[in-house]
Amino acid sequence: MAALGHLSTFGRVTHAVVRGLPESLCQHALRRHKGDEVDFARAEREHQLYVGVLKNKLGLQVVELPADESLPDCVFVEDVAVVCEETALLTRPGAVSRRKEVDMMKGTLENLQLNIVEMTDENATLDGGDVLFTGREFFVGLSKRTNQRGAEILADTFKDYAVSTVPVSDTLHLKSFCSMAGPNLIAIGSSEPAQKALKIMQQMSDHRYDKLTVPDDVAANCVYLNIPNKGHVLLHRAPEEYPESAKVFEKLKDHMLIPVTNTELEKVDGLLTCSSILINKKVDL
Amino acid sequence: MTTEVGSESEVNKQAEQIGSGAAQEKPDEEASESQQNASLEPEEEKRPVSPTASKSPRSQKKEKDPSESRGISRFIPPWLKKQKSYSLVEAKDGVERKEPTEAVVEEPIVEKDESLPEEGRVAKGDAEEILERKRQDVKVDEKDEKHSVSSAETQPAKEDSKEIEVAKVEGIQEDKREGETAKRETKEVQTAELKAAQKVSKKLKTVPCKVMLLDGTEYSCDLEKRATGQVLFDKVCEQLNLLEKDYFGLLFQENDQKSWLDPSKEIKKQVRNLPWIFTFNVKFYPPDPSQLTEDITRYFLCLQLRQDIASGRLPCSFVTHALLGSYTLQAELGDYDPEEHSSDYISEFQFAPNQTKEMEEKVVELHKTHRGLSPAQADSQFLENAKRLSMYGVDLHHAKDSEGVDIKLGVCANGLLIYKDRLRINRFAWPKILKISYKRSNFYIKVRPAELEQFESTIGFKLPNHRAAKRLWKVCVEHHTFYRLVSPEQPPKAKFLTLGSKFRYSGRTQAQTRQASTLIDRPAPYFERTSSKRVSRSLDGAPIGVVDQKEISGPAGDVSVYGPGVAGQGIFQDGDGKREVRSPTKTPQLQFTTEGKKNSLRVEGENIYVRHSNLMLEDLDKTQDDILKHQASISELKRHFMESTPEPRPNEWEKRRITPLSQQTQGRKDHLFKMDILPVKEKQQIPAVLIVEEKVQETDKSSHETLNVVEVKKQAEVGKEERVITEGVNGRDKVPPGSDSGETRKVEPLTHKDSPSLSSENSSSSSSESEEEDVGEYRPHHRVTEGTIREEQEENEEEVEEEKEEQASKVVQCMEAVPEASSVKQITVETVQENVVSQKSSGEKSLKEGDKQDIREETEEEQHKVNGEVSHVDIDVLPEIICCSEPPVVKTEMVTISDASQRTEISTKEVPIVQTETKTITYESPQIDGGAGGDAGTLLTAQTITSESVSTTTTTHITKTVKGGVSETRIEKRIVITGDADIDHDQALAQAIKEAKEQHPDMSVTRVVVHKETGVEEEEE
Predict the structure, then answer these.
(1) Where is the sequence biased in composition, kind Low complexity (chain B) (predicted)?
(2) What is the CA angle B945-B946-B950, rounded to 5?
């Protein structure tokens, strides 16, 4: 049994949890900037494609939760739980309107027989989007949505790993400009805040990570999976959306690259990692 | 050598004295005392002495190593002849002076101490002991007599009346010098009361010692009282049959904190309380345990980690607790056996601080999956998982940041981690850290400028107290050295300009220990994995410590796990084992060997050193006397050299080069310690080549230790040498009369203050260096020599650990005790010269008094060069005028730079040795005018500190003088860097200036000389 941070197991995923998007998303989803209205139909289509990739193309067991109209942001499941190995930390999202999203997630994860830890401290806030797990350690963005206390609770939950904090001020989440694109490989945007954050992460870490710098910050948010028989799999933003960044991804020879369009949800600050929780369950346990 | 002079006559006097004085006092007691004496064995006739000793502890000082007191031994025969009458005298003496109760109290202690040693020891010691005691007695008498002469002020009233009377009768004959000593002794008397027990020959003294082992058993042994940490550690490792021992260490409880026992120092100086109880622990967690050579080493590491985990020091998630627990079961119980392992077999183990049923079930479940793993394999698996834990090998220290927020500093293999609660909020990798220092309860790190930044920054943390800061600093020094360096820095030649610790990690580095491990050639030793049940139980969340020990302390029989048979497989002798293991490497090996020898020397030196202190009284006399003589001879030497060589500076260098330091100084050392350090010395010194010297004036003392982190070590090459000499004289401080002078006055009489923390070896070497330098222009140095020596004694006397603050006060005390003697004058003369320089610079700055400087002891020059780091130079400091002269004969280059051209440069007249090319650049600030100033002022203190690393030798002299109420401090730093890399002189110069400025912002740099010598072979002449 491989417990801690074995690189070979990084990205191993057997299950995914996703959630449908409510129509209320178009009008009421939280968003940092007023902009184009979300085309709900198109958003739904994009989301279905996304789920389809996970389920059909990659063969994951996907748990699809129904949308809740009272929770316009509920499609972004990533923010309400952090799952690492067999432990799931149910967060206390920074946005009050999203706290109820946790409830359904809790039941779902319990059904998956994960060790559940709830963040009950009323002073703590944490969005999963601020949590970057590298396989060796956690980085937690301290943002408008995530505070120190939230990060502490995360550190208490995942005691095996170092948890370092990274100030995030210019974007919604830490993962608004970065994500893991492979074992030991951090995809990072080119903006100054992104690069600055990367520097901090590099300084805080005992490990040396490779970095994959992409021109567009949001394109740096991709989904890496390690799927048996498929190897490195990377869901990244489609060339139609971010052609320059896509070119960078295309240089990853060892990866199975799957372009995914996410134009509509991006309007409400939703990126690729936001819409799923990936879980690695041992088959025989 | 007062002893020689006075011993016989004094004996007589003593007799008289006693006769007259004692008879009056307490006849009854006397009678009983002598009765008691009569009943004792011959050798025990001397017993009364010990009571005497308690009363006048300085007599202990006499107990110095026999070999050291040449003079004394010469007189042994006469004493023996007189023995009879003498001992009578002694008895009376004791009665007369001692409170009966005191004597009684003292007696049992003595008894006990003597009874501790084994027969062998007694047998061996008998004859010697008798002699020694007699000697002691004589000395005691002498001392007492002297004491009586001048001790009126300090002696207890009762004694006073008596002694004064005596003094009138006999004291006339005493010379002044003795009076001086007596004063000092008086001080000792007051402070050394505790040492009375040591009076008895040290050979007989052992101290029971307990070590809690990782498997929960206890190892007991008796240690010689003066044993170093290494002795005990080696014993323990031998007991454990452990060869890869560099990862381990011994902890002892100190207040609430645990501290590592420094192997190089005597235990008794580190551990204040009896009994001596230690815990054997992992000190340096191997980042990759799979690289350990032996399973037994991994086993001990596992035991440590199980403790760490069970106590919560090493946090793990539930899953990891379960997994690690399952490997523990596999290692200790073997394959899961449903029959044998009933449902509750597991609850006897502790896997986690708060272990739940659920966890135990999980452990069992996982245990079943490990079927077939051997214990060693299970241990390996355990370690593979444990090593990934983020807190693996992180030594946490509580602190506050600059804003008072509670944080923790974690020291680990890679650097320094900063935590707030459980969050890592910053991290400083070792390569990023330029300097580590502490000052009082503050701990500082100086870090390299970040990519786009231009300046280094210093980050400060507040530790709970001074001790904590120091402990953290030490741990940092050790971790950095162990994990990052190929070989340790030369053990603290001394701290640079600091009064504080010169501590350095002196053990093997990880690289060395790995190398050594490859040579381990023995069949895998058999060892039994003791069940961790008991261990974990007793741990119960509480870190190992005294409490545990109580709980666990079983019969010594427990240890038999490692029974004799087992030990047989290992290496029997510590010393042998060490050497054997150490011999591998090539170049490093040389270094290494040297190191080893050095260490052992150090140990010895320290012992002797202590003996010195026991003989303080006499020793002081001698020292004082000797120093004078010695000094005189040095001055002569110096004169000689100066006459013969018109150009002192280059000449000095040449000389230095030609003659190994060790040789030059050997006489001195000999004198001090009667040890032949030469070979070692040579090894150490010869390669040293680059010299930086710096003179700075500083307000007051600065004190705190710093470590410059030097990542890369260059192998010294003798062929090519470079020297940089930097000499800066700093602006004197104007000390407000009120503030400094208070202290100043006290100190007024001559004192040489040295870093008290210097070990005997250190000081001896520094003294030797200074002597050498004295040959040239650097006169203060040899003065310093005395200071060094004396300070040493001082230090010993009080057994102080290297805390500068403590020291400072100590020094003052000692200063008071020293009247101005002729030696002072001599010294003063030299001071004048120094002061000439300083006076010029005076007025430059008013320094804030009490401003303490952060002083670096390491040469950053080297660092820069080695690391290719860019040096930031203060351009405004750079000299404006540069003159170059190239003497025709040899490739010699002299560059002198004067700001205001007031100062003359040093021209080369002396033709350097042909094989070398030298280049010298001198910088002098305008404030110096060549001439000299008025009166010399009084030298307050002088100290020399020498530090050495592989390629660098740094010598620092600090002198403080007082002139007309104004005190000035002058710091000279000389750094010799050996290496084959080319040195950019300008850069070196600039760097030296810059560093001096940085280190002593409130002082001014007056002179910097960069001198380079290169082996000609390397040049294309």
Answers:
(1) 756-768
(2) 160
CB contact A155 to B (< 8 Å): yes
CATH code of the region B204-283: 3.10.20.90
User: Is B629 an 8 Å CB contact of chain A?
Assistant: no
The backbone region for B12, taken as left when phi is positive above 0, alpha when psi lies in -120 to 50, beta otherwise, is: alpha
Q: Which two tokens stand for residue A37?
A: 């209205």
Phi, psi at B108, each rounded to 5°: -55, -40
Domain boundaries, chain A: 2-279
ipTM: 0.91
Chain A touched by B368 (CB under 8 Å): no
Beta-carbon separation of B317 and A159 below 8 A:
yes
Instruction: Give the chain A residue whose CA is nearest to the CA of B385.
Output: A4
Tokens of B731: 């602006």
Percent of chain A with pLDDT over 90: 83
In angstroms, rounded to a whole number, what is the distance separating the alpha carbons of residues B758 and B492? 8
Active site residues of A: 173, 274
Alpha-helical segments (H) within B918-984: none
d(CA B675, CA B661): 15
So what's the architecture of B393-489+504-519 in CATH? Roll (2.30)
pLDDT in tens, B580-596: 333 333 333 333 333 33
- pLDDT per residue as tens digits for the range A208-242: 999 999 999 999 999 999 998 889 999 999 999 99
Residue A83 has pLDDT above 60, yes or no: yes
Are A165 and B320 within 8 A, CB to CB? no
3-state SS of B19-81 is: HHHHHHHCHHHHHHHHHHHHHCCHHHHHCCHHHHHHHCHHHHHHHCCHHHCHHHHHCHHHHHH
Q: Helices (H), strands (E): how many in chain A?
A: 7, 15
User: A2-279 architecture in CATH?
Assistant: 5-stranded Propeller (3.75)
pTM of the model: 0.54
**Which amino acid would we find at residue B372?**
G
Q: CA-CA distances (angstroms) from residue B50 to B26, B33, B46, B142?
A: 19, 13, 8, 15
Residue B909 to residue B651: CA distance in whole angstroms: 9
Query: Is residue B318 over pLDDT 80?
Result: yes
Suggest the residue from B381, B422, B483 to mutate for an interface test with chain A (most A CBs closer than 10 A). Answer: B422
CATH architecture of B285-392: Up-down Bundle (1.20)
